[in-house]
């Protein structure tokens, strides 16, 4: 005997049993208003917990007053940020798409049809996740920071760079921008390829593993010069936290407002460039503006096939995330 299933806007009827999508007022509000932004908030917070956490553990442990022996090296930093990215996407990918990066959100909105109405909420949530994640790590390593800085409450750029990115002294402004631009473009190209069904998409649920490998590779290959922010929320959120807890205005005035043109504009423009290249030369799905039908195709009702594994980039499962 076959079951009879009826689908309505707010509930599903299965034979004589009805299951509602919104069993109470909070569930409706959560689903319609805050579920996706909260997933982005949590994803970025987890990214920062692992990333800023490994920065603090590796650097602060180099001081004998903090611990008897060092607890890591540069490769440890690469692994920590890679794990943070993978775990952040894992907890958010099936709900919001797991962007956890304003530059990715903006690129998808510009070229892949991600709703612009969702962009402000996503970016605000991502930035807030960066602030909260950094605040939790700051509280966790508060006493070690005091020892490393040389006294209670002393806060300088010597430890500010455990939370946000600061370029090496020999890097010129143009070189700093190019380093972030290049790394972000590579990030976006791989994210798009990962979600392209006509390329080589990973099995469902393995997007976090691909992103782990990707961030590990970017850090090991391109991370030395600027700290590979490749994510405005990853840098600006913790930078705002450091300004709040006593590091002063120098976190924003460093190298003629480095915070704006390198870890924010570099990744945003890099992901835009990476998307333009991938969509213009490789992607054939209807999701991209490069494959929208022209006037003749519209007259003949011809459209490209949908090829993206929705929702990009985190994997399947979200409700209209893209």
From TrEMBL:
It catalyses: H2O(in) = H2O(out). GO terms for molecular function: glycerol channel activity; water channel activity. Pfam families: MIP. It comes from the Eukaryota. InterPro entries: Aquaporin-like, MIP, MIP/Aquaporin, MIP_CS. The keyword Transport applies. Coiled coil: none annotated. CDD domains: MIP. Its main location: membrane. The keyword Transport applies. It is found in: Membrane. Residues 300-322 are annotated as: Disordered. It is a multi-pass membrane protein. GO terms for cellular component: plasma membrane. NCBIfam families: MIP (TIGR00861). Belongs to the MIP/aquaporin (TC 1.A.8) family. This is Aquaporin-like protein. It comes from Crucibulum laeve.
């Amino acid at each position: 005997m076959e079951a009879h299933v009826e689908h309505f806007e707010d509930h599903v009827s299965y034979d004589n049993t009805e299951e509602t999508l919104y069993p109470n007022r909070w569930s409706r509000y959560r689903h319609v208003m805050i579920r996706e932004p909260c997933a982005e908030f949590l994803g970025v917070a987890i990214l920062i917990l692992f990333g800023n956490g490994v920065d603090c553990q590796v650097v602060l442990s180099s001081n004998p007053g903090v611990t008897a022996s060092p607890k890591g090296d540069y490769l440890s930093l690469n692994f920590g940020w890679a794990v943070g990215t993978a775990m952040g996407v894992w907890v958010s990918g099936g709900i919001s798409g797991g962007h956890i990066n304003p530059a990715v959100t903006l690129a998808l909105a510009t070229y892949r049809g991600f709703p612009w109405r969702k962009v402000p909420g996503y970016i605000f949530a991502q930035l807030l996740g960066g602030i909260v994640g950094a605040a939790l790590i700051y509280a966790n390593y508060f006493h070690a920071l005091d020892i490393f800085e040389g006294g209670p409450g002393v806060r300088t750029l010597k430890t500010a760079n455990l939370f946000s990115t600061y370029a090496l002294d020999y890097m010129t402004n143009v070189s700093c921008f190019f380093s972030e631009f290049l790394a972000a473009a590579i990030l976006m190209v791989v994210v798009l390829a990962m979600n392209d069904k006509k390329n080589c998409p990973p099995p469902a649920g393995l997007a976090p593993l691909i992103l782990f490998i990707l961030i590990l590779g970017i850090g090991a290959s391109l991370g030395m010069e600027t700290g590979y922010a490749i994510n405005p929320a990853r840098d600006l959120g913790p930078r705002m936290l450091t300004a709040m807890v006593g590091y002063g205005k120098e976190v924003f005035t460093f190298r003629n407002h480095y915070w704006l043109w390198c870890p924010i504009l570099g990744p945003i423009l890099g992901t835009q460039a990476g998307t333009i290249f991938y969509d213009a030369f490789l992607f054939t799905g209807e999701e991209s503006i490069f494959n929208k039908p022209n006037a003749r195709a519209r007259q003949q009702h011809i459209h490209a096939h949908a090829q993206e594994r929705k929702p990009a980039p985190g994997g399947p499962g979200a409700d209209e995330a893209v």
